Every structure is written in C-alpha cells, then in structure tokens.
Amino acid sequence: MNILFPSSTNHAYTFGGSYRVNNFNVDLCIEYLIGNDRNVMQSAENTPGFHQMDIFAYSLALKYDF
User: Fold this and answer.
1) How many domains is the chain partitioned into structurally?
2) What is the pLDDT of residue 14?
3) CA contacts within 13 A on the Cβ side of 48
4) Is residue 16 included in any domain, yes or no?
5) What is the pLDDT of residues 22-63, one digit of tens each?
6) Which domain holds residue 38?
7) Where does residue 34 rank: exposed (0-12), middle (13-18), buried (19+ CB within 10 A)?
8) CA-to-CA distance for 21 and 5, rounded, in angstroms?
9) Is residue 33 in a domain?
10) Is 25 exposed, middle or buried (0-12, 13-18, 19+ CB in 10 A)?
11) Could you tell me the CA-to-CA distances from 1 to 11, 37, 39, 41, 47 in Å, in that order?
12) 0.85 exceeded by pTM
C-alpha cells in the first residue's frame, strides 16, 4: 500500500441527471466515494499512519447538437 494507490474497501454513491432544451443538453453527475479507515504499520512497502478517504467528484457536461 502507498499513499497514491491505497488498498482499501471502498463504497461509491452516484447521482446524475440530464436536461435538454432545444439543441442544448446539460448533464450533471455527483459521486461520493468512501473508504474504510485504516491504521497502517511501518514496513518497506507501506506509508505508515492512519489513512482515511472521503472524495466528492463532480462532473458537468454541456452539449450542443448541430
């Protein structure tokens, strides 16, 4: 395990939607990613310490149809 690519159990919750007016589309998506808390001990391959993960990711897309 390292700080960039932790090995942990994750849960993701997503919600999204789309709205269309004439030739325009607006898409919005929200994701909430939760990782289990971990207390990692020192070793040659690990980054030691107490690790937590809570991530909010947002996406907005605008589209025009010709």
Assistant:
1) 1
2) 95
3) 4
4) yes
5) 999 999 999 998 887 888 778 777 777 787 788 899 999 999
6) 10-64
7) middle
8) 41
9) yes
10) middle
11) 18, 14, 12, 11, 7
12) no
In a domain, 25, yes or no: yes
Structure tokens belonging to residue 35: 């990782």
Q: Tell me, yes or no, whether 55 lies in a domain.
A: yes
Distance CA 12, CA 14 (A): 7
CA–CA distance, 15 with 60 (Å, rounded to integer): 12
How far apart CA 56 and CA 7 sit, in angstroms, is 19
Tokens of 36: 């289990």
- The alpha carbon of 8 is separated from its chain's Cα centroid by a whole number of angstroms, namely 14
pLDDT of residue 5: 58
